[in-house]
Design brief:
It is a single chain. This protein has ten helices and four strands. It has a four-stranded antiparallel beta sheet. Strand 3 and strand 4 form a beta hairpin. Helix 1 crosses helix 4.
Length: 276
């Protein structure tokens, strides 16, 4: 299985250990309802202070600090009582938030792992299309109109081959006569979808056509073409690491989910039952 390949496997085990620790801690913190305790610790204080300073650009005074603590205690009391009443059950917002936090744990695990260069290079080679730079093309064009006559096309080509000033030929338009070196998506956004693909097989430096665009027909001279390239790992390391971690996090999340789901007997209605 792909999920068992190094270096993903070793931090999948770390993930299981972390989730097990959370389960153990939550179990140890379960106490009878009549002796529940709410503790505001140093981490809570630091978080409250940081949030206040971010919002107000200053530290809270004594009264404000006490109000922050009182608000946190109130929130904790109400949350616990709401859970006691079962108000969290069936609440889609709460359910979605809890599922999101579980996914966040797996993302945090993936973000903490630093892959080896060999693993990054393998990932880059296997996903070259993600990191290959787009191809670029530059060209001159003579617009012939929406539906030029065959004789007009032939005369324009003869004039170009004879060395006449191409900027004075064709039908006037607002289209660029000379397109600078641009990615194909920019070319298509200017001349219409698919126009750049019609230029790929044209011989550079020679006038060719007619080439159909979203506006009509053109005679085109490709002046420069630069194919897409896969940069070396060192030039795009940050992007490759980010993608590696994202994909590794997805794999870890799926592995964790399958581990959790194995603990349950899952029953779903059959198609026949759905129709009734």
């Amino acid at each position: 299985m792909r999920i068992l390949k190094e270096p993903l496997f070793h931090f999948i085990l770390i993930g299981f250990a972390i989730f097990g620790w959370f389960h153990l801690v939550s179990s140890e913190n379960d106490v009878p309802a009549d002796i529940q305790k709410i503790t505001i610790d140093a981490d809570d204080i630091a978080l409250l202070t940081s949030r206040f300073e971010t919002s107000w650009k200053r530290t809270p005074n004594e009264a404000e600090f006490q109000a922050l603590i009182d608000a946190l205690i109130r929130e904790e009391v109400l949350v616990r009582e709401a859970r006691n009443l079962g108000l969290d059950r069936g609440d889609q917002v709460v359910r979605a938030r809890l599922a999101q936090k579980m996914d966040f744990l797996t993302s945090a695990i993936a973000s903490s792992v630093t892959p080896e260069d060999a693993d990054l290079q393998t990932f880059l080679d296997e996903n070259a299309a993600r990191f290959t730079t787009p191809s670029l093309i530059a060209f001159d064009q003579v617009y012939l109109g929406d539906a030029p006559e065959p004789d007009d096309i032939s005369q324009a080509l003869l004039a170009l081959e004879a060395g006449e000033d191409w900027s004075n030929l064709g039908v006037p338009s607002l289209l660029l006569r000379s397109m600078p070196l641009s990615v194909t998506s920019v070319v298509d956004s200017t001349f219409g979808r698919g126009f750049s693909a019609n230029l790929e097989n044209l011989e550079p430096s020679l006038w060719s056509g007619p080439v159909q665009s979203g506006y009509g027909q053109h005679l085109v001279r490709v002046t420069q073409m630069q194919p897409g390239q896969l940069p070396p790992l060192d030039d795009i390391r940050d992007a490759v690491v980010s993608e590696w971690r994202r994909e590794a996090g997805d794999d870890l999340a799926q592995a964790q989910y399958e581990s959790f789901a194995a603990r349950y007997k899952i029953e779903t209605p059959t198609p026949q039952e759905d129709e009734q």
